[in-house]
Amino acid sequence: MNLKKLQNRSILLFGKSRAFSMDEFESQLKFHKIKLVTEFDENVALVVDGKMMTPYEQNRSDILYEAKSKELEFVSIDVLEKELAKHIDANTLLMSLKLSRNKERLKSFIQNPMIDDELFFKLLKMYSWGGEDFFENDDNRDVSAAIILRFYKNIERNHNVQYATTGFMHLVSQTTDTQLLRAISLLEPIKHNSKIQFEIAKNIGCDEEMQEFFFKSGNPEVFQALSLNKNLKQSIIEEFSKNEKLGTNVAKNIKLTDELFELLKEHRAGLALNESLTLQMQEKLLGYGDEEILYALALNDNIDEKILEQLLKIENKSIKSALYQNRSTPVHILKEAYKNAQYCQEIAKNENTPVEILYQLHLDSRYTRFVMQNPSFGRHIQQENIGWEV
After folding, report:
1. CATH classification of the domain holding 13
2. Is the CB of residue 151 less than 8 Å from the CB of residue 183?
């Protein structure tokens, strides 16, 4: 579709516009020098099926299509509105909205799914929340719903999530889009919703600018969330490393380099749980011989087999128990332990345990519950379409 070719021509619309309000729809057409009509005449160049068509309008559209489909273009309202949205002059629109202070028109554009994200974020910055929360009044509710509807993945599976604060929580946890996270972090009602702040602070899409903003808040609970961020900036890592709890969180979660490993060496038990440990780092931690560190290594799902075998030689029930539950433990080790009737409860819980062993353990009432809770066994039952409840 070419809007330039429609200049000084008419569009016949059956029904109503969808993304734009009718007033805005007509205004956009007028900008392109296109006339909107409801009856066919010789100047009509495009026929559009809109939303909420009456049976009478549908019948007229069908008759016209049969008679004129070779001469005229017939499209749905979505096609036309998408084309109109592509040609919106963002600067002109933003200036017009700023000067007019027309809140309804601003809200209408924010709710328009056809505009691109760049314009959407600019419009969102212009919206005034009036010092109230996301869903505290009708306007705020509409804008909040528009944000969630635009970005929430598979929203059709989660009806009405756009009308609850949990919608923002889920949205933040779904995305790593820095632009979206920043836009949400700057919304006025965010100050009433600390849980959303926490979700943003620990998200890997939370860039250094946002991290600095959260750090300057001085909020201990936000610090706690920030310390879980795998991409935390160096200067904040250095500050958090001075605090036992925050330093341990960073040590567990940060994507490690040799430099960071050295910086966080006072939090060795936390480091031992970090799944980005290299073999060399694991060997260094093993060398300390500290039981707390060794136990943490045994819990690490990314433990190297060489380290795992060294840990198995240690006569410590807690360490062995952790290793036999660890999904990184090789199958041959799990089979050997099962053959010797050792650590069967742990083996029943382990996702790496062969299915044939899980079946045998399932027959023993001491381990049935653990097998049934094992995700690997559940997947097997579903794949084989066995009629068991898992």
Report:
1. 3.40.50.10190
2. no
Query: What is the DSSP code (8-state) at residue 177?
Result: -
Residues (pLDDT < 50) of the chain are: 390
Q: What was the pLDDT predicted at 380?
A: 85
Nearest to 150 by CA among 185, 174, 126, 130: 174
d(CA 100, CA 367): 70
Question: What is the distance, to the nearest Å, from the Cα of residue 369 to the centroid of all Cα atoms in its chain?
Answer: 33
Report the C-alpha gap between 324 and 78 in whole angstroms. Answer: 57
Claim to verify: residue 264 and residue 386 sit in the same structural domain: no
**Does residue 46 sit in the same domain as residue 95?**
no
Contact 33, 26 (CB under 8 A): no
Positive or negative torsion for Cα 227, 230, 235, 241 = positive
Which residues are CB-contacts of 124 (< 8 A; sequence separation ≥ 6)? Answer: 110, 143, 147, 183, 187
For residue range 310-324, list pLDDT tens digits in order: 999 999 999 999 999
| pLDDT tens digits for range 25-61 | 999 999 999 999 999 999 999 999 999 999 999 999 9
End-to-end CA distance of the chain, in Å?
54
